């Protein structure tokens, strides 16, 4: 029996050796027994691997979109992949340079949060409120992080099962935490019950327009600053490609600013708030979407901390503990003129520091602040030249009162805190009463000192596109303090002069002993102005400060009509009113 077993084993061994030495079906290129027992790694015949379309290495510039997913059984990853595909399709159809990156949250240590601009998190909740196993380190990191993410825009899709009490707890908690770290919520956190594709699809449809928010593409100085008296003015360009925003030369850009984080922190500190207190804002707040917002986020993005409502002083009076301060506030509130004088020099930080309060709830305090309003800037570019880029010109506001440095909310937001590539919520504000004449041969008289030149830059861009035969003559009256310090867009304007597109008249008020302003230039050209508006039916445009410049220009135009047109002041006033009715005297002015 034993001999039979030994013989059988020998046969099997002989067959194995023969097969290894001759078979063409082996995975080795060298089919010999030597290759089989070689200590060196043999070359393996490998099938060509399919390209992983979700693994991208972008070599060109574009808008990075971080797609993070945390999953237990794979559904969050499936949704994230579909979102990745959707973003790529939208980018291709709209010509937008979106660059989505798909990353499992278990690899969060490779993420440099300081360099991210936009993050979309898709994460499930396992069982009763527990993060997915692989996502737990990321969850704990974010919940314990103190890193400020005010530069980051984000949205969260929370997936879960409503059969569990802690439905979607992981996603909801992370959404709240992003907000506490000052990240900017693009959409309210969306919860998804099991695999509800209808809800997911609707969320994606809302997410795409939110991602199309504009970003600051270019920011450059227009002035030279050598002393505190010199004006600081910047040129900003916003990339609106894919946003579907459209405008006409003469329109304005509305910008939603953010308050200075240092001022917000000071207010929170003085009032004893953590900043993490939850609030339920009024849906009518400018720029607000939906959902719970922390106290800190409200003060940073949605409420005006620069201007004090009298109601806030009344509220503080009810909570001050010091009898003398209570009497001071009571007396102040009873005299409107003194109250207005007091408020004109103070901001919210001044009031909460001056008057010590106790027991002032977060809700009471926030409800007595004004909404933070968007600011409007005349658009300094024409869509006929570039419909994907909208430009504005901003004079930075800085000053001091009561021993404290002050700043313009939006201008200092643009200059000090908004960097190239940062997203910035904007919208177009129509200005139908400030439009170029339909007849391109109509002569133009443009009067715009300082940043008032902004819309005229757009007008001139359009006139420059026309041939000499198609366009009428253009006179621009521009003024600033110094030729070599704040002559805005000097090179562009002088180039248009050289190309015979423009006749430029300049007034530099501080370059000589006697100050000269644009209204002085208008008087010097009185006959030219009168002949242009009376014989050639020129259109007159004024842009800038309403309180002083526009008022003075109107008086000068009236005087020119009286002298050159030999009219009475009343007739001159009627003449200008008639020009306004005809659309030949248009103003884009503001109070500074």
TrEMBL record:
GO terms for molecular function: flavin adenine dinucleotide binding; FMN binding; oxidoreductase activity. Gene3D superfamilies: 3.40.50.360, NADPH-cytochrome p450 Reductase, Chain A, domain 3, Nucleotide-binding domain of ferredoxin-NADP reductase (FNR) module, Translation factors. It comes from Crassostrea virginica (Eastern oyster). The keyword Signal applies. InterPro entries: CysJ-like_FAD-binding, FAD-bd_FR_type, Flavdoxin-like, Flavodoxin/NO_synth, Flavoprot_Pyr_Nucl_cyt_Rdtase, Flavoprotein-like_sf, FNR_nucleotide-bd, NADPH_Cyt_P450_Rdtase_alpha. The lineage of its organism: Eukaryota, Metazoa, Spiralia, Lophotrochozoa, Mollusca. The keyword Ribosomal protein does not apply. Residues 1-16 form the signal peptide. This is NADPH oxidoreductase A-like isoform X2. Residues 65-208 form the Flavodoxin-like domain.
């Amino acid at each position: 029996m034993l001999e039979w077993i030994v013989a059988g084993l020998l046969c099997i061994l002989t067959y194995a050796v023969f097969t290894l030495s001759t078979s063409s079906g082996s995975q080795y290129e060298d089919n010999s027994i030597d290759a089989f027992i070689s200590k060196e790694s043999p070359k393996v015949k490998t099938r060509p691997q399919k390209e992983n379309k979700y693994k991208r290495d972008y070599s060109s510039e574009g808008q990075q979109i971080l797609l993070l997913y945390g999953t237990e059984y794979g559904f969050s990853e499936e949704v994230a992949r579909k979102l990745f595909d959707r973003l790529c399709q939208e980018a291709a159809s709209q010509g937008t340079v979106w660059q989505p990156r798909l990353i499992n949250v278990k690899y969060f240590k490779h993420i440099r949060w300081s360099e991210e601009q936009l993050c979309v998190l898709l994460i499930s909740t396992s069982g009763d409120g527990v993060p997915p196993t692989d996502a737990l380190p990321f969850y704990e990191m974010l919940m314990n992080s103190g890193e400020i993410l005010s530069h980051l825009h984000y949205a969260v899709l929370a997936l879960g099962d409503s059969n569990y009490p802690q439905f979607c707890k992981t996603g909801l908690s992370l959404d709240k935490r992003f907000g506490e770290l000052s990240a900017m919520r693009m959409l309210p956190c969306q919860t998804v019950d099991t695999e509800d594709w209808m809800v997911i699809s609707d969320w994606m449809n809302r997410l795409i327009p939110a991602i199309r928010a504009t970003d600051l593409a270019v920011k450059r100085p227009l002035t030279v600053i050598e002393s505190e008296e010199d004006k600081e003015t910047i040129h900003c360009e916003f990339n609106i490609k894919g946003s579907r925003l459209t405008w006409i030369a003469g329109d304005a850009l509305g910008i939603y600013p953010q308050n200075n984080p240092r001022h917000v922190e000071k207010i929170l500190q003085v009032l004893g708030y953590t900043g993490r207190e939850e609030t339920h804002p009024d849906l009518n707040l400018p720029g607000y979407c939906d959902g719970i917002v922390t106290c800190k986020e409200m003060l940073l993005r949605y409420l005006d901390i620069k201007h004090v409502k009298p109601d806030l002083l009344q509220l503080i009076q009810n909570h001050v503990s010091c009898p003398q301060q209570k009497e001071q506030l009571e007396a102040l509130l009873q005299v409107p003129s003194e109250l207005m004088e007091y408020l004109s020099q103070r901001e919210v930080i001044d009031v909460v520091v001056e008057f010590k309060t106790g027991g002032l709830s977060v809700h009471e305090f926030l409800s007595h602040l004004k909404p933070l309003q968007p600011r409007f800037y005349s658009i300094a570019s024409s869509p006929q030249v570039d419909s994907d880029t909208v430009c504005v010109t901003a004079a930075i506001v800085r000053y001091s009162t009561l021993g404290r440095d002050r700043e313009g909310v939006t201008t200092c937001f643009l200059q000090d805190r908004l960097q190239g590539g940062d997203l910035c919520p904007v919208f177009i504000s129509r200005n139908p009463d400030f439009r170029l004449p339909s007849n391109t041969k109509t002569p133009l008289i443009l009067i715009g000192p300082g940043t008032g030149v902004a819309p005229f830059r757009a007008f001139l861009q359009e006139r420059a596109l026309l041939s000499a035969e198609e366009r009428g003559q253009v006179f621009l009256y521009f003024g600033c303090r110094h030729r070599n310090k704040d002559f805005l867009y000097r090179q562009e304007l002088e180039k248009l002069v050289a190309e015979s597109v423009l006749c430029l008249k300049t007034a530099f008020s501080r370059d000589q002993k006697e100050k000269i302003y644009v209204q002085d230039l208008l008087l010097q050209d009185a006959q030219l102005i009168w002949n242009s508006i009376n014989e050639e039916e020129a259109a007159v445009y004024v842009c800038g400060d309403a309180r002083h410049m526009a008022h003075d220009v109107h008086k000068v135009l009236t005087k020119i009509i009286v002298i050159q047109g030999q009219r009475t002041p009343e007739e001159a006033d009627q003449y200008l009113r008639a020009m306004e009715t005809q659309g030949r005297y248009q103003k884009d002015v503001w109070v500074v």
